Amino acid sequence: MKQSLTKKIGLGMLLGILFGWQFPNLSIAIAPIGDIFMRLLKMLIVPLVLFSMTTGSINAIKSGKNQAKKLALKTFGYYLLTTFFAVILGLILVTTIQPGNGLNLEGVNLSTPDVVKNGTTIKELLYSFIPTNPIEALSNGKILSIIVFSLLLGFSIGATGEKGKPAADFFESMFEAVLKMTMWVIHLTPYGIFALIGNTIATRGLESLNFVMMYMVVVLLGLLIHSTITLPVILARTKRKIADYAKAMSPAILNAISTGSSSATLPLTMNCVKNAKVTRDTRKFVLPLGATINMDGTALYEAVAVVFIAQAYSMNLDISQIVIIALTATLASIGAAGIPQAGLVTMSLVLTAVGLPLEGVGLIIGVDWFLDRFRTAVNVWGDSIGAAVVDSSLK
Ligand code: ASP
After folding, report:
1. Using CA atoms, how far apart are residues 137 and 276, in angstroms rounded to an integer?
2. Does the structural domain 2-394 have CATH classification 1.10.3860.10?
3. Quick one: what percent of the chain has pLDDT higher than 70?
4. How many A from CA of 58 to the centre of ligand 1?
5. d(CA 234, CA 389)
6. Atom of ligand 1 nearest to the CA of 376
7. What separation in angstroms does the CA of 362 have from each of 109, 126, 261, 306, 367?
8. What is the pLDDT of residue 1?
9. Cα–Cα distances in Å, from 183 out to 12, 187, 205, 221?
């Protein structure tokens, strides 16, 4: 069943590419099938994060303060370390290969894309962690705020003892019900992906990708090295077989490529990690958090993009600016929502920190939809490995 789902999704992707290329009108006509699938996945995100994080933290507290502390420390330790590795790798590649040299953009008028003009500041990012009204956060799908509220709610229910038991049972049983719903939606993945990919190929075409080719090569190379060397080396510590784990995760990874959204892939990631036998409580805690704040692919891409823009403007970056890029790219990836092209929005944070013009984003915006698919896949792969690593380190 697991294998055949992967095969079906792969087939859906291939047929989608073929249809989008050969029958663009037909692919555009059936786009609503993809939209409905995306809506179903999005419908699951808020309840999944709320019930999963709350039950995860109730159980963490119940297993003792020390165990809860260990879980939190190991999870955040893994996230920060792997994100930082990704950023460093991106910086090494972009400063060695120098894809932006020779583009000479000085004096060229690019207009600043609106998404970047209205980008995030560090203050806004910090404030977004704390909801002033949790119901408003839930109804507007503010995932960072929902995570913080669910964590605190779970800890307080867990700390309430006997009186908290009915609430704990309620969240546990709601979590099971949402999982059941998730299973139903997952069965639609091959059809949804077929329609989504077909529509993307039919409407976007692949011509825009010739431009800034070397920049794309650097980002893709970085993503490849991070996902096939760095992360597997970390996974190897758990004594799991890389190939088996990757096979178990493949439906989620293919879904990430097709949707460009870690959050919309969360239902599949949870299911795949469950099939790979990662303990329930770990995955309940690590995955929703990871889908929102652990984005290795996004961090790597932000670092590469910003240095590329500097090179294109013939601006020399000194070592202190490179350090600032490393730190702010990490922060910007944490702040990026798990939705398509969110990394482009938070990039304004990195550009501003080193005094680069925001309009530089105009240079890379045309190819961003394409790179987004692959960085999202790496984000999801990083989350799944995180679940296995944290799980085995707690045993
Ligand atoms: N689309 C990415 C994700 O959902 C975020 C980004 O890099 O834009 O993980």
Report:
1. 32
2. yes
3. 93
4. 29
5. 8
6. 9
7. 10, 27, 22, 12, 10
8. 42
9. 18, 7, 33, 34
